[in-house]
Amino acid sequence: MMQYQPRNDWLARARDKIRAAGPPTLPVTGDAIDDVRSRRVLDLATRIGERTLASGASANDVTVSILRVTDAYGLRPVSVDVTYTSINVSYHRGDDHEPLTMLRVVRKRVTDFTALQSLLELIDAISKGESLDSARERYATITHTPRPYRDLIVTLANGLLTIGVCMLMGAGLLIGAIAFVAAALVSVVQRLLGRWAVPSFFSQAAGGLVVTATAMGVTALAANDVWRFAEMRPSIIVSAGIVLMLSGMSVVGSAQDAIDGFYLTAAGRVFEVMILTMGIIAGILLGLSIGQRAGYAVLVTSAQQPFGTVAQQLIGVAIIATMYGIGNYAGFRTVLGCLAMGVVGWGAYLLALHVGLGQATASGFGALVGSFLSMLVARRLRLPALALTTACIVPLVPGSLVFRGLLEVVEAEGAATGMITGAATLVGAAGVGLALAAGTSLGAFMGRPVRDTLTRAVRLRRR
C-alpha cells in the first residue's frame, strides 16, 4: 500500500529540481605554502607577465600566463588585474592569513619576439613540472640575453621595409632608395630621441617631419629639372614612412583586449595608438606647410596611389612582412612565419577586391584570414601568434590614404570643399584601420576554439 507523502515534502522535491545544488559561490581556501616560496612564485609570475605585456601581448594572454605559472606551483586561488601600465597579482592564503599581493609597473615597451617566444616556452616548461629555482634561473637568462640583432641591422630592416612599400606601389628603384634613406634617418632620429627620454608623440612627429622633408627635397629637385626626379611620385616616400611608423603600434593587442573584455587596457592601447598617430600627422603637416611656403609642394599629388602588378605586390608584401619581423627581433623561424602570413593576408585582400568588396571590407577580410590562420599554426609551430598576426596586417596599413587626406587638407587652404574632401579621406583611412582591428579580433575569436579542438583531437589520437 502506497504511503501518503505530505504536501511540504513534494514542494521540497520540486524546489530541489529547480534550484542548483550547493551555495552560489564556492568557498575560497588557500593552500598551505610557506611565505618565502609564495613570494618567489608571485615574483616570477609577475615578472613574466610584465615582459609579455611589454612585448605587446594581449591582457588575456598575460593573465593566462600568470595563472599558469602560479597554478603549476600550487598557488590557488590567485587574482590577476592587468591594466595597460601595471600588473597586480594577489594570492589569497585563507581566512587566517593576509593576502599576498605584488604589483609591477610596465615602464618600457619594446617588442622583442625572440624574448616573447622564450617566455612562452618557459611557461610551457613550468606547466610540465620545471622546478622553481630552475625557472627563475632560466628567466634571468632570458632577460639578460642580448637581442638577436644590432641596432644597425634593425635600421637596415626598417629601410628595406619601406622599399617593400615602394615595390607594392609599383615605384622604381630610385624612389625606393630614397625611401630607404628616409626610413634609416627616421630610425636613427627616433632611437636618439628615445635615449633622451623624449615623449613618443614628439618622436613620431620628428619621424613624420623627416619623411616629409625628404619628399619635399625630391620635389625641389624635380622642380629644377635635376636628372629623372620629375618622373617620381614623392608622396610614396611619405606613405612608406607612415607604414613604417604605424607598424609598431599595438593595434592587434588593443583589438584582442576589447573582445576579451579588458576594456580599460584596450582603451589605453587605443589612446596610445591615437596619440602616436597624431604625432605622425603633426610632423607631416609641419613638413607640408614648410614645403608649401618654400614653393615646392606642387608636385606632390593627392591622387590615389596605384599598386604595381600582382607579382610586384606579392614581392613587396613579402619584403614588408619579413623586415617587420627582423625589425622586432624575431628569430629565423618566426621571420619565415611572418613572411607566409603577410602573403596570405594580402592574397585574401586581393581576392576580396576581385569579388567587388570595398577597400575597408577587403582589408578586414585579409586581416581576418591572416589572424585566423595565425592562431591555428602558431602553437603547432611554436611561434608567437602576435608576430604572425601583426605581420599580416602591416602591409594593409592605409599609409597612402592617411597622407592623401592630410595633403588634401593642406592644399584646401581653408576652403570648405577641400577640407571636407580631406576629412572624408581621413575618415576612410580610419575605417580601414577599424576594419583591420575588427578582422583581427574576429579571426582570433574564431581561431581559438578551432585551435583548441584540433589540439584535443591530436591528443586523443596519440592516446
Automatic annotation (TrEMBL):
Which InterPro entries does the annotation name? ThrE-like_N, ThrE_2, ThrE_Dicarb/AminoAcid_Exp
Annotated transmembrane regions: 160-189, 201-223, 235-255, 267-290, 334-354, 360-378, 385-407, 419-446
* Keyword Magnesium carried by entry: no
Q: Name one GO molecular function term.
A: transmembrane transporter activity
Positions of the Threonine/serine exporter-like N-terminal domain: 43-290
One Pfam family of this chain? ThrE
Major location (coarse)? membrane
The UniProt keyword set, sorted, is: Cell inner membrane, Cell membrane, Membrane, Transmembrane, Transmembrane helix
Tree of life domain: Bacteria
For whether the record's keyword set contains Transmembrane, the answer is yes
Q: Which GO terms describe its cellular component?
A: plasma membrane
Could you tell me where this protein is found in the cell? Cell membrane
The GO biological-process annotations, alphabetized, read as: succinate transport
What topology does the record note for this protein and the membrane?
Multi-pass membrane protein
Residue intervals of the Threonine/Serine exporter ThrE domain: 314-443
Q: Which family does it belong to?
A: Belongs to the ThrE exporter (TC 2.A.79) family.
What is the name of the protein in this document?
Threonine/serine exporter family protein
Per the UniProt record, the lineage of the source organism begins with: Bacteria, Bacillati, Actinomycetota, Actinomycetes, Sporichthyales
